[in-house]
Amino acid sequence: MDITLTAGDGHAFTAYLCGPEDARAGIVVLPEIFGINAHIRQMADRFAAQGYRAICPSLFDRAPGGGTGLQLDYDPAGRDHGLALRKGIRDEEALLDIEACAAALRGQAVRLVTGYCWGGYLSWRTACLSGSFAAASCWYGGGIVRHCHDTPRMPVQMHFGGKDPSIPMADVEAIQAAQPDLPVHVYPEAGHAFGREGTAAHHPASAALAWERTLAFFAGHAA
């Protein structure tokens, strides 16, 4: 269901919430530049099916012209719109919304964070700046390399496609060099957004393995 949350600066925004209220662990699922569309809601539903309470913030609610609960299509118009909206949102503002989601999971003893593309990047920023979560799983987060020398405050894993034209392997190698103790998984045959089912970007074998690794990683930190 869609709910309304309020961030620490008074900003009200939409979020998608699912999963059992009495779940021990909750997960904040951060979207791509396409908003809280069907794919991101599907990922939240998948976590809910595993027994987690899951919540997805509509980060674009902050952007001028972002509307409420924006959901964009995977086409050039949707991509261009999403990229333009993202430019209007500072990381610090997105972090306020992420913290509000963590607060909404106050019924859960443990909180986790994951995300895809822009959300993967913000998962890393959250891991380094927030004390509200127990672990983070970052899927193909473009831009992480700019902050790869930051110090995470929680366990983190990352997932990258070996054939991702938007995240060159030089960036992945720089992240690995800066964070030698952090598990950085590379899927050689996958490109960008390989976890996005129903699109040409989807690489089923890589997505399935990354999902298994994410579940195992979170299970190990949700006890």
From TrEMBL:
Note whether Nucleotide-binding occurs among the keywords.
no
Q: What is the lineage of its organism?
A: Bacteria, Pseudomonadati, Pseudomonadota, Betaproteobacteria, Burkholderiales
Q: Which InterPro entries match?
A: AB_hydrolase_fold (IPR029058), Dienelactn_hydro (IPR002925), Dienelactone_hydrolase-like (IPR051049)
Protein name listed in UniProt: Dienelactone hydrolase family protein
Q: Which domain of life is it from?
A: Bacteria
Assigned EC number: 3.1.-.-
The record's keywords, sorted A to Z, are: Hydrolase
Keyword field contains Hydrolase: yes
Q: What Pfam families does the entry give? A: DLH (PF01738)
Q: Which organism is it from?
A: Castellaniella ginsengisoli
The family database entries (PANTHER family) matched by this protein are listed as: ALPHA_BETA-HYDROLASES SUPERFAMILY PROTEIN, CARBOXYMETHYLENEBUTENOLIDASE-RELATED
GO molecular function terms noted in the UniProt entry: hydrolase activity
Q: Where is the Dienelactone hydrolase domain?
A: 13-219
